[in-house]
Write a structure and sequence with these properties.
The chain has a single domain, classed as 3-Layer(aba) Sandwich (Rossmann fold). Helices cover about 40% and strands about 10% of the residues. It contains seven helices and four strands. Strands 2-1-3-4 form a four-stranded parallel beta sheet, with helices on both faces. Helix 2 crosses helix 7, helix 3 runs parallel beside helix 4 and helix 5 crosses helix 7. The protein is globular, with a radius of gyration of 18 Å.
């Protein structure tokens, strides 16, 4: 159920208002081997699986720009920053009062701080939201085995495995200070945090299934059918 494919009359004819799932991603470098839209692709896929599991969910068009300033200096990265993303989400959810609630499915870790700020304000206003993001190993946080495997499963024709190289595999907590001061380029010249060289489509299928199950469980707990 994609919102962009429905008419206003379609929604008005439903016996009960549906929930709105919003995929949030980014347009940013993912090493030399993954497309700039990786985070958005994953978020859209997870929203689609969620809607397939529950008929009371409609999927909004994706928000493909996020807070990606840490990836500046790499060609193709576009960022709207923390404040703009927070404001965008607040106004979007405010406009969605005809839905039973809004599920924010976030595919980019850099979006979390502004999304949490937006959710706090929306909760204070009495609006019903759920914020969910996939998780992964602390030493494989960007364009590494996890994301590369997922993309090999979803869009193998867009993955240039011949360019994949091991990146910085230090755990994220050990890198966070340098990341905040100098961005990803300060800790990884290739833009990779992890090792994508052994990624497989089969592993990607398992990873996506795991994420989809956890997303559905979170939604079922917050919004029981």
């Amino acid at each position: 159920m994609r919102l962009a494919d429905l008419t206003s009359a379609d929604l008005g004819a439903r016996t009960a208002p549906p929930f709105l799932a919003v995929p949030l991603g980014a347009t940013e470098q993912h090493g030399p081997h993954l497309p700039l839209g990786t985070d958005t692709t994953v978020a859209v896929e997870l929203c689609g699986r969620l809607a397939a599991a529950r008929t009371d969910i409609v999927v909004a068009p994706a928000i493909a720009y996020g807070s990606s300033g840490e990836h500046s200096g790499f060609p193709g990265t576009l960022s709207i920053g923390h404040r703009a993303l927070e404001l965008l989400v607040v106004e979007l959810v405010r406009s969605a009062d005809e839905f039973a609630g809004v599920i924010l499915v976030n595919g980019h870790g850099g979006n979390l701080a502004p999304l949490r700020a937006a959710q706090r304000l929306l909760t204070e206003e009495g609006r019903t939201t759920l914020l969910w993001s996939p998780t992964g190993p602390a030493d494989d946080t960007h364009a590494g085995h996890t994301e590369t495997s997922a993309m090999l499963h979803l869009t193998p024709d867009r993955v240039a495995m011949q360019r994949a190289r091991p990146g910085n595999t230090d755990p994220l907590p050990a890198l966070i200070a340098d990341l905040r001061s100098g961005g990803v380029r300060a800790v990884s010249p290739t833009g990779i945090l992890g090792d994508p060289t052994h990624a497989t489509a089969a592993a990607g299928a398992q990873i996506l299934e795991h994420w989809a199950e956890h997303l559905l469980a979170a939604v079922n707990q917050r919004f029981p059918q």
